[in-house]
Amino acid sequence: MFKKVLIANRGEIAVRIIRACRELGLRTVAVYSEADRSALHAKIADEAVCIGPAASSESYLNVRAIIGACEITGADAIHPGFGFLSENASFARTCEKCGITFIGPDSHSIEMLGDKAAAKEAMKAAGVPVITGSDGAVKSFEEAKRIAAEIGYPVMVKASAGGGGRGIRIVEKAEELENQINAAKQEALSAFGNDEIYIEKFVVNPKHIEIQILADSQGNVISLGERDCSMQRRNQKVLEEAPSTVIDEDTRRKMGEAACAAAKVCGYKNAGTIEFLVDKDKHFYFMEMNTRIQVEHPITEEVTGVDIVKEQLRIAAGEPLSYKQEDIKLSGHAIECRINAENPAMNFMPSPGVIDSLFIPGGPGVRVDTAVYQGYEITPYYDSMIAKLIVHGKDREEAIAKMKWALAEFIVDGVSTNIDFHLKLIRTEAFEKGDYDNGYLNRVKLI
To answer: Residue 284 in contact with residue 246, Cβ under 8 Å?
Structure first.
């Protein structure tokens, strides 16, 4: 096992990783931007290093500064969290060359699975159904136009280097294609520094179901069940739950087996998530694989009892998985609401500012992953998510009841949040029945 872990991230995920490291007896190093001098992760780590100005491109995406922080502190491993450099193959390769353990898959796996054409071929080799579309990035508008006509509208234009719902556009007809491609490319370039896009068939009103897997260096791969991430707004996940209301035991087994087979074909190691679209007939199709920890990983932890971050650390150190597939039993139901500093009444405009007062709910089956505190300043430079409210109940009805009172007790003064929006959402008939799909929030108006 390595001795000291540098967390190349910020916010609640950095705090989450620091705590997992502490429980395993590992020392930690936080990196922070000038805007994050008072951030919680920088305060609670054993050591903290400033790596640049507020802009992500000059701090949390600054590979040279992050590697330099390892050299200064003697950190022999890096956990990238999610976002930023977590799925950057070049960064993982740099870590490998510098003799620093990258807590995630190797650079080859990240590169291959980040290449949409290569990922699709790997899934086909594993027997996983895939959605029809372009073989990798399209090179020109004429090529895009031809492919869209061949597979038929509606189609999705998606950023090749994408994640987090950015760089995605739905195109209903040929006349909209060029404008939507340009918009997706511009957003992708800004978010990922890469404007390549690909095209795939748009599955109408699907469920977004993802399978969490863990894979070690000894060739063992297990599935930790599914998460339903269908409650999305503009391709951004808003609320997630586990297990899904539409996945029966047979479909769960098939999806889990497909995900594990895909990981084995890819020679994948560490934690990963394979995302599927599931249609009304429960046919599932590979969408993409996220080669990192997910924002919504806590709900899987709650229903399985597996600490995914600790498993990441152990796998990266060369240890075998702590669990076998037969050990994984889903218990109860978990829901996660992403609490953002934003104003739903003003088209979800980000709401930076100082938190004047704060009350975080607690009690049996209630978990809050956050890095904010009273007096903390939310800056405009980063993602607006300030907390994840997670509840676990013996069944879905109890979980919903817990979430209702937990949201009602969650108080954040000084900035606007989407807490009331979440309360309205979980009180809708569609959510209470589990009768919603990817497009639900685009069709209804809650605020």
So the answer is: no
